[in-house]
Amino acid sequence: MYDVVVFGSCMIDFISYVNRMPKSGETIHSESFEVGYGGKGSNQAIASARLGCKTAMIGKIGNDGYGKNYKRHFEEEGINTEYLETAGEYSGIALIVVNSVDGDNQIVINANANKFLSVEDCVKAKNVLNQSKILICQLETPIEATIEAMKSFQGLSILNAAPAVSNLPEIAFRLPNIFCVNELEAEEFTNVKFNEMSDVKKIIQLLIHEKGCKTVIVTLGKNGAAFNDNDEIYHVPIQQEVQVVDSTGAGDAFIGALAFFLSKFPDASLLQKVAASIVIATSSVQHKGTQSSYINFPTIDPTKEEFKFNKL
Fold first, then answer.
1. Which residue intervals of the chain are DSSP H helices?
2. The one catalytic residue among 3, 121, 199, 252
3. What is the mean pLDDT of residues 223-237?
4. Residues 6+ apart with CB under 8 A from 120
5. Residue 102 bears catalytic tag
C-alpha cells in the first residue's frame, strides 16, 4: 500500500541566518529569521512524497498550535497521518544557525513530544508497517521504539543513525539493510578520524566487520558519498558544482531520495541509486530552509544516467 513509511521525528525549525558563526559567549545579530517544518523523520517523509512515493508517517506532535498545523501540513502533502499522534505539551523544536557565506549550519534539538514515540506505537501501526516497501528510521526518537520498528519490519529498512549517540545498542547496527551516517557521525561510531578518502574506506570496513552492518553509506557533504556494495567500496562525488545557499536538510533529502529510488527503480544498481540521491540532495542546498528547500527536484531515471564514481 505504501512505498515508504517513516518512523521518526517531527520538529519545528527556528532558523537564523548569520554572516559568521558566533564565538563562545558572544551574541551577534542575525541577518534574517525563518520558521519552518523540520525534524529528520518529517524531512525524509516530505522528500520521498514530493519525489513521488506514497508515504506514511508514524510520529508524535505536541498539543500546541505547531502540532495542529503540522498534521495539516502532512495531509496537504498527501502523507498518511493515521499514526501521527499528539503527545505531551510541546512539539519538538530545532534551533538552527546557518552561515550565509558557505551554507554550513549548527543545530540544537529539543525532542519534546518526540520522546513519547514508543514500542507500543509499533504495535498500533502494524498494518502500515506490514504494507510498506521501505522503512526509514533515525535517532531523534527513543531508540527502543526504533529498534522494535526495524525488528517488526519485513521490507527494506534504512537507519539514518543521526544524531550520533555514544551508547547505540549493537543490534541497531545489525538490523537495518542500510546504515547511513555523515562523516562526523561515522567518526563518533568508529573513533576513526576522517581526513582523506582512505579513512572513509576504513570506517565502512569497520562498521561492516566489527559492528555487523550490512550496507553502509557515509554522506560526505560537498564530497558526495561513499558506500559498500557487497565487498566493493565506492566513492560517488558531487555530480555538478552548485552555489550552496543552505545545507540544512540536505542529508534528509538524500535519505528521502534514496528511499524513492529504492522503491521505484528496483532494477537500478545501488551505485545508480546513491548517485541519483546525491543529485537530489545537491538540488536542495541551492535554496533556503529545510523542507522549503525541497522544491524543483530534477526528474531522474538512474538507469539512464552516467554518473561519476571511483572504486576505493
1. 40-51, 65-76, 119-124, 126-130, 143-152, 170-174, 183-190, 197-209, 250-264, 270-284
2. 252
3. 96
4. none
5. no
